[in-house]
Specification:
The protein is of the alpha+beta class. It has 2 domains: about 10-180, Cathepsin B, Chain A (Alpha-Beta Complex), CATH 3.90.70; about 195-230, no CATH class. It is about 35% helix and about 20% strand. It contains 9 helices and 10 strands. The strands form 2 sheets. It has an 8-stranded mixed beta sheet with strand order 1-2-3-7-6-4-5-8. Strands 9-10 form a two-stranded antiparallel ribbon. The protein is globular. It starts with 8 loop residues before the first helix and ends with a helix.
Length: about 240
């Protein structure tokens, strides 16, 4: 799309979704755009950068919990209390972490988690991971041919974040796992170089579409490892 500065930014945000797969749009008071597709009106969601996107993905995933609170999961006047309900619930779960998830994943201490989640205006990927683990949900972030698991690996997947040029959340996705390289801890995407044989790194590189031969020569182990490590580093 050509930017001539005469149109609204919302047009640019919606442009990638303007096709036959989407049939209706609604705009809320919180600068949030909800895109409904023609399969299920509660299926796919897209938000602009001013929204706490990650926390709202958790909110959408906790349907049963929210329904017990008799709250709608669309953005409306109850959204603020929904957010607080999730944070309060998660703080209590962290305080009573009988499964020792906080120690298991070593992403953030219980004390820092509680203090940060209580005071932050927008959650980070680290908080997102632990919120999902504590609330017993898993959301997979799909980025190119990489699948980052945010949550306990053994849980059923409750949704997917498609992270391309634009990011959106969907509860249903035709996830062909064989096409992805799976990262179960996005903050430790790869082990140390000595943990791998060159053939193992070459197999990983093939999945990630990283060349293993340059100038008719096989790449050295360190060179290939460094490239893979850079490719797997999580950014959101």
């Amino acid at each position: 799309m050509i930017h001539n500065k005469n149109h609204f930014n919302i047009i640019c945000n919606l442009y990638p979704f303007m096709d036959s797969n989407f049939i209706s749009l609604s705009n809320s008071n919180n600068n949030t755009i909800i895109i409904h597709n023609n399969n299920n009106n509660n299926n796919a969601y897209f938000y602009n950068k001013n929204t706490d996107f990650l926390l709202h993905c958790i909110l959408l995933s906790l349907n049963d919990y929210l329904l017990n609170l008799n709250k709608s999961y669309y953005f409306n006047e109850t959204t603020s209390s929904q957010y607080h309900a999730i944070k309060d619930r998660s703080i209590n779960l962290a305080k009573n972490d009988t499964n020792s998830y906080m120690k298991k994943y070593k992403i953030i201490t219980t004390k820092n988690f509680i203090n940060t989640i209580f005071s932050c205006n927008k959650i980070t990927p680290e908080l997102f991971f632990m919120l999902n683990v504590l609330n017993n949900i898993t959301i997979i972030v799909l980025k190119n041919n990489k699948a980052y698991y945010f949550g306990n690996n053994n849980n059923n997947v409750s949704g997917y974040i498609i992270a391309d040029t634009y990011k959106y959340f969907t509860k249903e996705y035709e996830f062909k796992s064989e096409l992805y390289y799976h990262i179960y801890n996005p903050f430790k995407c790869i082990n140390c170089a000595s943990s791998y044989k060159i053939l193992e790194l070459q197999n990983i590189a093939k999945i990630l579409n990283i060349p293993i031969i340059i100038d008719n020569k096989n790449r050295l182990k360190k060179d290939l490892y460094d490239h893979i490590k850079t490719e797997l580093t999580f950014e959101f």
